[in-house]
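Data availability (excerpt). The following record was deposited with the supplementary files.
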Amino acid sequence: MSVDRPESSNHPRLLFSVDGTRYELVRKLGRKNNGELLLAQRRYAKGPAGSVIIKRLSRPVSEKQQQRLKEEVQLAYRLDHPGIAKVYQLVLHGGLPYVVMEYVEGRSLETVLSIAAMRQRLMSEAFVCHVVSEVADALHHAHTRTDEHGRPLGIVHRDISPENIRVGSNGEVKLVDFGVAYSLLPGREATTASVLRGDIAYAAPERMRLEKVDHRSDLFSLGLVMLELLTGKHLFDLDGVEQAARAAGPASAALAQVRCEEPSWVPIAEMAARIERFGPEDVERATQGISEPLRAVAHRALRRNPAERYQSGLELRDALREFLVVQGRSYGRPEAAREVLVAVKEAELLRESADVIEPDVFPEEPARKTEH
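Predicted structure:
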C-alpha cells in the first residue's frame, strides 16, 4: 500500500449524498491496488454524525475494476462477525463507484510492529495470543460461509498481513479488506493464473507455486503474522532463509511470467525462492526465547504441507486461548487496548518525531532491509 500524508481541510468537502445522508471528506488515507481510501464523516439529515472509510476507484475506471468492487461488496454482505470490518453499501456517484465501510479507530498491526521496534521491546505473548486468536475466529467465520442452498462459498482472504489487521482503541481486533478474496460466488471474476494479488511476503508456499489455495493458506499467512509479532522478525527476512534461497538458485521458471499487483520489498522471484527454501529449522531458530507451547503453535501453523497445519481457524484459536488459560492469564480487549497505549507512549518518549505512528488511521510504510 502506498500511503499519502493525510490531507485534511477546515472546510469539509461533500463527496456525495444518498437519501439525505451526506458523506464529507475528512482526509485522504492512501491508495491500494483496488482503490483509494478516504476517511469521511457520514451526516444524517437527523441524528449524530459518524466516521466511515470510503474506497473509490481512480479514473479511468475499467469494467474489470468495477466488477471487482461489486464482487468485494457482494462477498462482504455475507460476512457478519464482530472481528470483520463491515461494508455498508456501494454507491455510484459521478460515474465512480464508492464503497462505504466501517471505520475502525485504532492502529494496524503494521503500526504496532513499528511501535514495538521503536521502543525496542516486543508486545507481550498474551497480546499476540489475543490478537491472533481473534483473527483466527473471524477467518473461521469467513471460511465456513455457505450460499442460500447450504453450499460452501470457499472464501479465502488471500491477503492476511499486518496491514489488514487492526486493533481498535477499545482493544477489539478487526480483519479488513476482502478486496482480493477468492470465493465460489456465481459471476465471480477469476484471477489470471499469472497474477498474484495481495502482499506476497505473507503468501503460503502453494500460492507462490501457483497451485490451488484454500482456507489453510490463510492460516499459514496468519502464522507468519504471529511469528513476526512474537519475534519482531519476518520469517522470510531471516539471514538463514535468504542465504539458503540464494545458494539454491532461482525459483521455478514458471514464475518468470508472473507479476504482482502490489509491490513487495524483494523481487517476486527472490521472494518465491525464500518461501520455497524455508524449513522447520528456520522456524525453530526464529522462535528461540518464546514460550515452548507458542513455539509449537508457530511450527504447526507454518508447515509447508497444508495437511500438517491447523485445519481450521477454530483449531488455531483454541490452541492460543488454551495457552492463556494454562498460563493463568485473563487477557482481553481492555488489556490489549492498555498495552498498545503504553507502547505508543513509550515509543513517543524514545523517538520524538515518530512518522510511523498513525496520526489517525493508517501509518506510513515502515522500511525493511531492502526497498519496499
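Summary of structural features: The domain at 107-350 is CATH 1.10.510.10 (Transferase(Phosphotransferase); domain 1).
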